[in-house]
Amino acid sequence: MLESKIPEGPLQEKWRNYQLKSQLINPANKKRLKVIVVGSGLAGAGAAATLGEMGYEVLCFCYQDSARRAHSVAAQGGINAAKNYQHDGDSVMRMFYDTLKGGDFRSREANVFRLAELSAPLIDHYVQQGVPFAREYGGVLVNRSFGGVQVQRTFYARGQTGQQLLLAAYSQLYKMKRAKKVRMFPRHEMMDMVIIQGKAKGIIVRDLVSGQLKRFAADAVVLATGGYSRVFRLSTLAIGCNGSAIWKAHKRGAYFAAPSFTQIHPTALPQTSEAQSKLTLMSESLRNDGRIWVPKAKDDPRKANAIPEEERDYYLERRYPSFGNLAPRDIASRAAKERIDAGYGVGRLQNAVYLDFKHAIAHFGLETIQDRYGNLFKMYKKITGVDAYREPMQISPAAHFSMGGLWVDYELMTTIPGLYAIAECNFSDHGANRLGANSLLQASIDGYFILPNTINTYLADALHEDHPSTAHPEFIKVEQEVKAQIKNLLSIKGTKTVDHFHRELGKVMWQSCAMSRNHNGLKKAISEIEHIKAKFWTEVNVTGGDKEMNPELEKALRLADFLELGLLMCTDALQREESCGAHFREEFQTPEGEALRKDEMYSYVSAWEYNAGNFKLHKEPLVFEYAQPTIRSYK
Amino acid sequence: MKVVFKIWRQDSQKHQGGFERYPIEGLTEDMSFLEALDHLNERLVLQNQKTIAYEYDCREGICGQCGIFINGRAHGPHNNITTCQLHMRSFQDGETIVVEPWRATAFPVIKDLVVDRSALDRIIEKGGYISAKTGTAAESNAILIPKDIADKAMDAAACIGCGACVATCKNASAALFTSAKINHLNNLPQGKPEAAQRVLQMTKQMQLENFGNCTFTGACEVECPENISIINIAEMNARRAKAKWLGR
Amino acid sequence: MFFKKSIIALTGLFLCIFLMVHLSANIILLLPKEIARELYNAYSKTLRESPLIQLVAYVLYLSIILHVVYALLITIQNRKAKSKGYAINRYRENSSWTSQNMGLLGVMLLLFIVVHLANFWARVKLGIGEAVGLDVEGRLDIYEVTYGLFQNIYYVLFYSLLMVPLGLHLHHGLKSAFMTLGFYHKKGLRAIAKIALVYASVMTLGFGIIPFVVYFK
């Protein structure tokens, strides 16, 4: 049933073989083909610009006021590439292995290898586009190391790498807009998919300024809509990030893979109050030079600097001596949670751990640390009012990246023909845990290099079909359904706000479906979410109308989908009775508290079919020919 | 903590706007300014009123979507931050806080505190890129870029496009924004081939969008969340003159 | 936009140079009365009779006119760009008052120039008003014109006080002109900022003190 379309041949030859065999389309014919790209982040903008360059007519949508706002902008630390500029033994094969191992052997070998293989040309691509990556005095590119690996393969532009890459992609997008190959629709949010005869043929969008619903038809639809960790409400994501586009696609037939694989980032700022809307991320790169610790004594009332060395517990260095503070994210987060839950947390709400630069400053000098992390320290001070050069930062785990997403094959096509999902909104390369600095990489490669190669195969056939029309009865039907849903939400006129329900959902998800999960907790979570969902549809109050800019309505529509997605996440976490990567089931752990993977039973990708709300599991077995699954040890 | 928000309300571009007063209690000093507005909006929903429209997305100071004129300053009373990085601890208990949208002819008000900044995108569209196609790049280290040049480009490239420079400028000049993008690209070797036409076309678009003249008040660099220096504007002027008169 | 601003900057810089020459000549007025009369009238005669200076004078008139006209044009453009202002604007927290009010300062200076030209230029060049007498050497006694004017305390105050807006205008204008013309050397700009401060102070003090000195002579 699930055909992953992995090409023939040895690992190193697969992508080349694919390209050799893929279909080509005459430039004159490309002009006649239309592609919709939803999302304008690194993947969406990269894909839209590149498809435009290839000659397709591209329509690109984003909910923000400009493509430059997409949340790729917030990635701080960097982007990995197997360039081996540091001559430290890096290679495509090593990067492939690191990524596969980092993902706890829950991803497809062929996809991961392609990710590593295309990483080096990607850096060349960005340099050409004017990304001001950090340089040595001699003019060559600088690298640093990042969590989960022992080589230096991360390229960066201060602490603003995501911003710089996004601005490059955004500028290419506007280059193609100027060339009239891309039409840009900012402040337009996708409301639903239109499937005609089993193929993706268009979308219904809402103009967020006028409130008007609009239909757009195309020969193929690409979703590049990012992650859905806002399901936890408090996350490192932008407030507008949502899972609605992929959820709508899921409900129209696209399978959703590994929905519960959510990365909890170890170095965010702790929550300080109930009213908080977001948890700010501090780049993981800080763990290169910062040391993480908690006091050895419980409820130690002393200030951080007053606690002497011998009374500090550098728990990551203690538990994982070979990786220390650079242990992968899932491990670092869980270790922090373990210490906090055991009563060693610091800060006002005792929900944080220290990240200390004292030793790094003493060793490298203040100036070097300022040069490396200056803007992060500045940001920390803006938010907390604390000077982290003088006293340690307080950090805490926070919901971050969604490894899960729409199931895609090697061509990045979902189970709906003509519907593609790229970057964070798909499940393809990261398995059960993503390595730091691999997110910008996947987004860029999916958008710039892979999709523009694979989409031709589908479009070559689409060329011979009728071009879809927005007057098709299916468009009218779907638009009516969207209209009805909006009308329904506005007519409830209950007594509670959208945010109230989002907070409720977030609490349940954080409690039961985050860093550690168990059978009973997940069972309970499912019934609680059902309850919240029922309450939402009877008690929510959405003020304002549908024919105007109405942020409250936007939030309500997104939350309606999160409530359903939350159910699927818990269902998935409940079904997978093993611990792997970010998915840690308390029942399945070693005596030392490490994750216990069960390869013989769960070495597959869980792809869920919506099935009218009775989620149905399909399995794509994972076959490892080149890397043998080992116990992931960072000790 | 309680404050009184005096907020500009305007239904749409076509409607007339005006200030409304909203006394609000139950705030804490830890709340960000936007969280306080969120809190106010929840109250309004409970009173069956329309919520106030304002912009935000990342809430960590990098996306550039938030931007409100607060108590007479773009992004509020502190220098070099975004609205989302402003916290209630910067205000007095009981204070009246005046909240207005960005004001510039090039930034029409869409609703309440939301303005249309697409003029900035159109400036970028006219050359804020390097026109090399995907798939044509050479090995990165084949171009050596001295650290000081890379750093200088990065200083300018850091612009988040929030529009505070335009909002605070008495002339609504977009010179800081435009110069930042021009200097980012024109300082790098990759940007050199198109340097002259980039500066000419982008500055031309800047004028067509009804932005005003730069008179070097320096307000923009104080409000800029990324601390981009007005020296960039002088550099843009030099680059433009060179492009205009020497053709390079 | 760029052309207009460049014209304002170039004419402004030219006027700055003119003011230096003007002040250095006016220093004569600080000398004892008869020496000052001798030197000042001789200097005036030289100026009037030099064809080069005649040419420069026309450039000067043109500069003032262009400076004013283009400043007016960009002000109109700027107003259009900011069609609605803020209810509250605490611009003093992010910029100097001077930089925000160059137009107002300019209008004050224009008023000054009109009065100044009426007092001297109109009398000497156009022969409007009371005729200018001759000194012992038979030259136009410009010194006497100056001396006579500054016996009136109101003129003394008018001339001296308006040198304050002059200084402010010059202080911002000088640095701004360099940046408008594309001077972007970081250290150079820092030096220009210092020079502008010194220059503006010297102009204000120099021009401002002369009427008093003459008054009390």
Give a structural overview.
The complex is a heterotrimer of chains A (635), B (248) and C (217). Chain A is of the alpha/beta class and 635 residues long. Chain A has 18 helices and 20 strands. Among the domains of chain A are: 267-399, Succinate dehydrogenase/fumarate reductase flavoprotein, catalytic domain (Flavocytochrome C3, Chain A, domain 1, Alpha-Beta Complex), CATH 3.90.700; 473-602, Up-down Bundle (Methane Monooxygenase Hydroxylase, Chain G, domain 1). Chain A has helices spanning 14-21, 27-30, 42-54, 92-102, 109-117, 119-128, 161-178, 244-251, 315-319, 329-344, 358-364, 366-384, 439-462, 473-492, 498-512, 519-539, 551-575, 599-602; strands at residues 34-38, 57-61, 79-80, 154-155, 182-185, 188-196, 199-207, 213-217, 220-223, 256-257, 262-268, 291-295, 312-313, 353-356, 393-402, 405-407, 419-421, 426-427, 604-609, 616-621. In chain A, the strands form 5 sheets. Chain A has a 5-stranded parallel beta sheet with strand order 5-2-1-9-17. In chain A, β6 (188-196) and β7 (199-207) form a beta hairpin. In chain A, α4 crosses α5 (109-117) and α15 (498-512) runs antiparallel to α16 (519-539). The longest helix of chain A has 25 residues, at 551-575. In chain A, 61% of the residues are buried. Chain B has 2 domains: 3-111, Ubiquitin-like (UB roll) (Roll), CATH 3.10.20; 118-246, Fumarate Reductase Iron-sulfur Protein, Chain B, domain 2. In chain B, the strands form 2 sheets. A 5-stranded mixed beta sheet of chain B has the order 2-1-5-3-4. A two-stranded antiparallel sheet of chain B has the order 6-7. Chain C has 217 residues and is mainly alpha-helical. Chain C has 9 helices and no strands. The model of chain C has no long low-confidence stretch (mean pLDDT 95). Chains in contact: A-B, B-C. At the A-B interface, α3, α6, α7, α12 and α13 of A face α1, α2 and α3 of B.
